[in-house]
Design brief:
By secondary structure, the protein is α/β, with parallel strands linked by helices. It has 34 helices and 40 strands. GO terms for molecular function: cyanophycin synthetase activity (L-arginine-adding); cyanophycin synthetase activity (L-aspartate-adding).
Length: 929
Amino acid sequence: MRILDRSVYVGPSLYAHFPVIRLELDLQALEAWPTARLGPAFIDALVEALPGLAEHGCSYRQPGGFVRRMREDEGTWLGHVLEHVAIELQNVAGENVTFGKTRSVSEDRPGVYSVVYEYAQRDEGIAAGELGIKLLCSLLPAEIRPAGSVPDDWEWESARDGFIRYAQRRALGPSTASLVRAAEERNIPWLRLNTQSLIQFGHGKYQQRIQATVTGKTSHIAVELASDKEETNKILASLGLPVPRQELVTDSSGAIRAARKLGGSVVTKPYNGNHGRGITIDISSDEDIRAGFEAAREHSRSVIVETFVGGDDHRLLVINGELIAATKRTPGHVVGDGKSSIAELVEVVNQDPRRGVGHEKVLTRLELDSQAEQMMERVGYTAASIPKDGEIVYLRSTANLSTGGTATDVTDIIHPDNRDMAVRAVRAIGLDVSGVDFISPNIAESYKNIGGGICEINAAPGFRMHVAPSEGTPRDAAGPVIDMLFAPGAPTRVPIAAVTGTNGKTTTARMLAHITKMGGFTPGLTTTDGVYIDGQRTVEGDMTGPVSARMVLSDPHVDIAVLETARGGLLRAGMGVSEVNVGAVLNIQSDHLGLKGIDTLEQLAEIKRVVVEVATDCAVLNADDPNVLKMSAYTDAKVICYVTMNPSHALVREHIRAGGRACALEAGINGHMITLYDKGSHIPLLWTHLIPATMEGRALHNVQNAMVAAAMAFSLGIKLDAIRHGLRTFDTTFFQAPGRMNVYNEHPFKVLMDYGHNAHAVGVMADLAQRLDVSGCRIVVLAGPGDRRDEDLHAIAEAVAGRFDHYICRRDDSLRGRDGDEVPRIIAKALMARGVTEAAISIIPDEQQAVEAALRMGQAGDLVLVFADALARSWKQIIHFQPEGVVAAVSQRAELPPLEPALDEAAFAAMEGVVRDERGLVFEREESD
């Protein structure tokens, strides 16, 4: 049993609309061993190792369903079992995940399964799958256990606890997790910005940040004061608030002198410690004071010695000037029964299902470590001692939950004076979120009557004791923080538009971003050539996946996001956002088929459909593409907007008559008008010949792109004037749309450069080349990506065959598995098979040499169409080309071969009805005349 491939999806994907991991798992010989054949011993051992599996419902949708499935008939296969094990391992580590599905990959790959399961955090999810395989293999009979699958010294209990600790080191802490849950309850999006607890709530310019329970609004000065325990003590004392007397010391002798000066029992603690680390309480002997000093010194260079205040330890949580919760904390302890040793009592306490490793559960397991030994030693005990019945033996000097303490909610009984005291203390320091450590004999009575003291003011207080107390009522500690950061009704999300399709998505996304900018927004745009913030490229490269989406949504300037979403990102990692306001699909054409298991247009459509599946407000669909039109059945968007260039489209016509939204191309006396329909309204928008990107309406593919961009902008609430202005000022210059129908007119001939790299995109540009007024020749530089199927390269050739006077076949810089000139020769052969004469074809594999040759051919009145791969390089080559005198200069370059006609002169002379001009171009005689 081995993992052949693994994909981690961070957002909506083909498999789910939330994060999942997909394993391609090969069972190998274990395909012949379903659970029924493995027998009850295997099943019983698995459930014993992970008792929570007994609650899995599986297809029966009721507790026990999965175990029943393993036992009945032939049982189920180990791929399906691994799915449930990976889910349950995460549950054991404290995560709440439930989703999974397992399917056989295909009939021709027996034993290979697609195992999909939900995850809460990436590394933990991956580790759960790997540990799950080890667990299953360890339970197999030795004779069928895969060799080397389980180390000889492997122990399940140790591996399980190690996994839990591994997961918790990467998980959000209890406090941060509670804030995230509170945000989710308010439908506020969030992003984890690092591997610790730095969280962004909200998108773009609406964002607020927290780190643990420190917010972006927390005063730095206040945090510094709270960290300075001596200064905090002085400030609170100056206001008449109850605080113990303190002395700051730097050596053990100073600590003893300070204790004598203060009198009575004292407490030693680090000057700037937290989480109760290094604190020793209620000590008076020189030996204990010296030991307490050394314990504190491990966490701070300076140590505070303060008077010991007797009573119970309380944490009072104050948020935004209001006391939210009060909790009494009790240090980790055991209660004697007169028969059991302390070690045995600890085992009994740890059997409490509420106790787990670290922050896994409400309570943390007790540990008999060095601190516990010190506490026992103070009362004359060891771990083997047997306390009297009812005797309490403390194993910790502080009551922190992280060290095994317990928490009892006392919010309802706290005295008003104590409540006001906590609020005053926090305001004096200046914190927005704070925990006041208050010692009191009875929290229900006023400190003015019975005494008590404030030990510390804590910045970044933990919330676990309040949201999940050991006893008493849980309190919503996180909600008030979120409400403080986001006032009721305040915006938290920026509008998000996502566009996908085989061709045109980059141009459409750029058009839409330009329109939003004209509408007064600051757009964040992701495209195949980079990330753009307010029109300026900030990151270069193919940025159409989830990483770039996070970049845009994390930028504090952005107030609208336009995401080009490509097939590769969807297949590799899913979408970067859980939902979009407007999602659009332009078309589904043959491209990338045969790669990563996508072999048909229907499968490709299923991938790209994800964009409209997660659209909430509007799904914009190209009604002229049958595969896109079918997607209307898969979206829950409030509105569907159909886009059609066919004014007689029957379905769209009925949709409009029913009050639906649409964008149609209508013929008029002045040309073609882009028209919007919505709720019975007829809105003429713009003549197509007024849109520069359409080349006076001739570039029909950009007419369609403009229609989709207009429909998306309208659905985002952009004003009509801004849409019109945006379309009228967007052109296809290399600056605005690199590689998208870029025109250069500064040579005697016209040059048109495009990134088209599939048959549909190439065909669209070939159509445009036919519609343009060209008095001379049409020359094309043609290629195809090396990882495409031969049939795809044939289709590219078919899209241009017979439409040009000369064809230069090249390859991309990246061969993608092909030989050096394999792609251009396949295309050349396909051109000849479709009637192009061999003499009209040149094979020049290198892109720079091919472009140079095409430019050398160009004469006044010609059109040179260059399908480019290295866009910036090719564009520079085009604009820097010098028509005059270039031939002599080029001929001196040894690396540039002369044009390679496919015919020698003897063969040419034997042909009838053709003529070759001085450039080597071949024409039929009647055309030449």
